[in-house]
Amino acid sequence: MARAFHDSVRQVARQDYTEDQLRAWSPEILSPEHWQRRTANLEVRVALMGEALAGFIGFTLAGYIDLLFTRPEFVRQGVAKTLLREAEDALTKLGVTTAWTEASLTARRFFEAMGYRFVREQTVCCGGVELRNCRMEKTLTQGGAASARSITLKRSETLAPQVGRILESVSARLRRLVPDAEFHHIGATAIPGSLTKGDLDVLLLVSPARFQATVDVLRQHFVVKQPMNWTSEFASFGDDLGYELPLGIQVVVKDSSADFLLFLRDYFVANPDALAEYNRLKSAHAQEGPEGYWKAKDAFLAKILAARPR
What we know:
The chain contains eleven helices and 13 strands. By secondary structure, it is an alpha+beta fold. The protein folds into two domains: 147 residues, Gcn5-related N-acetyltransferase (GNAT) (Aminopeptidase, 3-Layer(aba) Sandwich), CATH 3.40.630; 122 residues, Beta Polymerase, domain 2 (2-Layer Sandwich). It has a six-stranded mixed sheet with strand order 1-2-3-4-6-5. A five-stranded mixed sheet has the order 8-10-13-12-11, with helices on both faces. A two-stranded antiparallel ribbon has the order 7-9. Helix 4 links the parallel strand 3 and strand 4. Helix 9 packs across helix 10.
């Protein structure tokens, strides 16, 4: 934890603070005893990647998010988002109605993306040096974790202007980065009349020989998504902040067992009755939160894929 805090401050926050401010904020790697005292009155959760500590969060049961730090090598891999959601779920179950934090200038954009409202900028003194941070707040929905993160759906055609602009930008960018990959627009925003969460998915089809090289390139430019689902034929990336809508990028080996996303898109375009049924299922499970929503979707799609002609 001491190393994660120090490295995060010194490396991740340097874009918004001077060297003097960074040294005052974290002058050295402090002892385990210091961190035991520092977190004695906090609820602490940690995120592990294999055996490595990727990040941690510390919060009070009154709703104050005191600490949230990710080690630099795990930044933009969903670590902070997962930790914050876990803390919010715990607070929601306790009946806490508001979460608040004093976010660094660096973390402000992340918290805004997670639904926090900017209240005011503050100046604090640390080691005799002034640092600015941001008071931010979020209203927590009561009724449990699923209710707190219920999914709002909209018709795909209402997002057409944003989708068009994003596709133009992303397709050009990806063709520069991985020119030998096939680029396709997939997911709900590619299906007229579909209900969508409001994100945009694209597919990159590559040869087996180019899969790892493609993954290595994208890892340098986008956030790793759902690494637990990765295989030797499938990987996923994204960017939740850089475009008008959250962006998902699926990398798939062409003609492999993971190559079914284009089939699903074309299936729903060609079968309006199936699309209507899929929309009804989405609406019915949206209030269950991501876990229930995805479980219902996966079961529905599995039946379609099981009946796919070989």
